[in-house]
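Supplementary notes for students who missed Thursday's class. We covered one full example, reproduced here. Read the sequence, then the structure, then the short commentary at the end.
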Amino acid sequence: MENDLIAQVEDLNELVKIRRGKLSDLQEAGNDPFQITKYDVTHHSIDITDDFEALEGQEISVAGRIMTKRLMGKASFCHIQDRKGQVQAYIRKDGIGDDAYEAFKTYDIGDIVGIKGVVFKTQKGEISIKAGEVLLLSKSLQVLPEKFHGLKDTDTRYRQRYIDLIVNPEVKETFFKRSKIIKEIRYFLDDMDFLEVETPVLHTIPGGAAARPFNTHHNALDMDIHIRISLELHLKRLIVGGFERVYEMGRVFRNEGLSVRHNPEFTLLELYQAYTDYYGMMTLTENLIRTVAQKVLGTAKVVYDDTLIDLEKPFEKLTMLEAVKKYTGLDFDEVLDDEAARALAKEKDVHIEKHFKKGEILNAFFEAFVEEHLVQPTFIMDHPVEISPLAKRKPSNPAYTERFELFITKREFANAFSELNDPIDQRGRFEYQESLREAGDEEANKIDEDFLTALEYGMPPTGGLGIGIDRLIMLLTNSYSIRDVLLFPTMKNK
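Structure (token representation):
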């Protein structure tokens, strides 16, 4: 096995040497392809096949990468790949000239060429271009993976996404869909009169989420800076300032582990709407996801990991108390205090931290016993106040908050609140979070004095929502790992 691998590497090295030799020959002959600065492209591959009747007999020009090549004496065929797909070119010696044809015969799979010619259909019925000119635009000095098997090694695919995009067309389609999903989200929110804004990436105080930040240092100001973990606190400052509907879609950064669901940098949508609450956010969330699915896929019933996910029917709603009772039979309303909750956790072998209170223990039971059942869209509502430092308390039960999380395919997709706008209560929540930091919780929030000052000026009743865009794209493209929907995921150095 080892000898076979060494032989393969030696063969590849020899092929690379041959390609570099061809480049040298071209340069010595004054035909250096890297000296070409532009090429006029009139059509793309799909344009030609879709509009064949209108284009038949017309002269066009295309450009792309040679993916297949068949030499047959005085005539040859090749397929070139552009951003939309592939198209066949028919190349004859008497069509492009003796010298140009001899040059074409030396071109390699992976070379980028421009082809000018007439659209026609071969005797076998394949729409093609009868070349009148073939021009080498860039020489490929590396060998593409074997065409019939493509690039399957996931580590190489993620590290060298450019190869993945060349040889695996379905990957390119995923990222076309990603772009369309993001556009449709913007269309949806713009139509609802939301204003798209940009807020700082560099924060003096990390806040808005329970996460460890990446830290850096600003030399000129001689101060520590944190790369944002959330968009929340700056957007709510804008609500205070009078922007009644705002959103931002951008990268956030969390210094956490990697998994099929987590990447240290990811795309987050956060929006805030004055004069509504978390029920308003539920309606918006459900309509947004359903509408985007219909616009991008043509249906709101999607298949994910061989399971039909129905985004058309109304999403289920359960409080966290109801969900835990449904899947464990335990009623936390009957758990009298923190000590009783700790005893129950010990009895049921649920891991908790020493400082956990009843509300945090309820959440631990939810994570241990409920999340794995939430395949179809489900809003989990009314989280304990201990785990919701930025959400408004329920007037009818102040131990819980007006908060929901949306779960689909056992994963959290969205998090939303009736936003806490009481600056005195907010200070108390921040102080509790600070006590957790002092107890060793590096993900707990810090006190943000400027944000508290903003609240003291008055923030109207507000609903806020955050959606993990990458997870939504995973759902709508049937992608198993978050790395499959990030063009350049974070990878450990080799």
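Commentary. The radius of gyration is 29 Å. The chain has a mean pLDDT of 94. If anything here is unclear, bring it to office hours.
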